[in-house]
């Protein structure tokens, strides 16, 4: 089965980080999550993953008709890509080019198109405000002629536009934002339980706002338009989290799109 690629969204979709095992660490329950998601962001060997895991995850996504994007991160398996790694512009460019290229080789072999690129973890977080890092990553992403997933209203969007990279707005409901709308990521977020994830997803899809880490309503730039919603597969309650978000997204799409 060949998964179709689309240039833009017509509804809210769910993307989940997959293929994040390495060594003795198995990563998330990808086989349980795949039937509930639209898109898989596959680790490319930097923060997690390996050649055999990439190949297995691509095959699993193809089996379930799930679109596949590349999920490059800082080369830091010990920190799972959630620590700050100092890199020059050339190093960041080369790292993203290398990791996305590695996944694309497995996608080409399986006859599955590369749907998008979405940086992982601390790389993604820093790219909100670090112009050098964001520019280097986007220059690498440009080489693959696919959309990038990113945070609207940040350097993600403006530098993607600089390189004519199609931009797909992304939102998060299992981690938090600061009161000024910056994504905090896993470090710094409060624990989100499935019932709250359902309610936040509903509110985000219908009103374009969600509660910050301190419960302040914030507009994160997706109001009135489809977006892609990210959830993490390495959380203990990931199955319940994704199921709650799936229910909310399906209800929003039925009513609005």
Automatic annotation (TrEMBL):
GO BP annotation list: carbohydrate metabolic process
InterPro entries according to UniProt: Glyco_hydro/deAcase_b/a-brl, LamB/YcsF/PxpA-like
Domain of life the protein comes from: Eukaryota
Gene3D superfamilies xrefs: Glycoside hydrolase/deacetylase
Pfam families reported in the protein's UniProt record: LamB_YcsF
Record field: transmembrane: none
CDD domains in alphabetical order: LamB_like
PANTHER family (UniProt xref): 5-OXOPROLINASE SUBUNIT A, UNCHARACTERIZED PROTEIN YBGL-RELATED
Name used for this protein in its record: Lactam utilization protein lamB
């Amino acid at each position: 089965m060949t998964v179709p690629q689309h240039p833009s969204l017509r509804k809210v979709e769910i993307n989940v980080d997959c293929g994040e095992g390495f060594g003795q660490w198995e990563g998330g329950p990808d086989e349980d999550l795949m039937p509930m998601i639209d898109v898989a962001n596959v680790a490319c060997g930097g923060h997690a993953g390996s050649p055999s895991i990439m190949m297995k995850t691509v095959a699993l996504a193809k089996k379930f008709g799930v679109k596949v994007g590349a999920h490059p991160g800082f080369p830091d398996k010990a920190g799972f890509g959630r620590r700050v790694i100092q890199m020059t512009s050339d190093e960041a460019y080369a790292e993203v080019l290398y990791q996305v290229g590695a996944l694309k080789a497995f996608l080409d072999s399986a006859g599955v198109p590369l749907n998008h690129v979405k940086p992982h973890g601390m790389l993604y977080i820093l790219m909100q405000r670090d112009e050098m890092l964001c520019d280097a990553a986007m220059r690498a992403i440009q080489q693959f002629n696919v959309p990038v997933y990113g945070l609207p209203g940040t350097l993600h969007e403006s530098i993607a536009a600089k390189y004519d990279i199609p931009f797909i707005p992304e939102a998060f409901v299992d981690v938090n934002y600061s009161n000024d709308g910056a994504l905090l990521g896993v470090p710094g977020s409060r624990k989100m339980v499935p019932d709250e994830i359902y309610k936040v997803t509903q509110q985000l899809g219908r009103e374009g706002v969600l509660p910050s880490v301190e419960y302040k309503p914030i507009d994160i730039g997706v109001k009135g338009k489809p977006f892609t919603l990210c959830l993490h597969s390495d959380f203990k309650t990931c199955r319940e989290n994704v199921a709650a978000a799936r229910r909310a997204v399906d209800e929003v799409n039925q009513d609005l799109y």
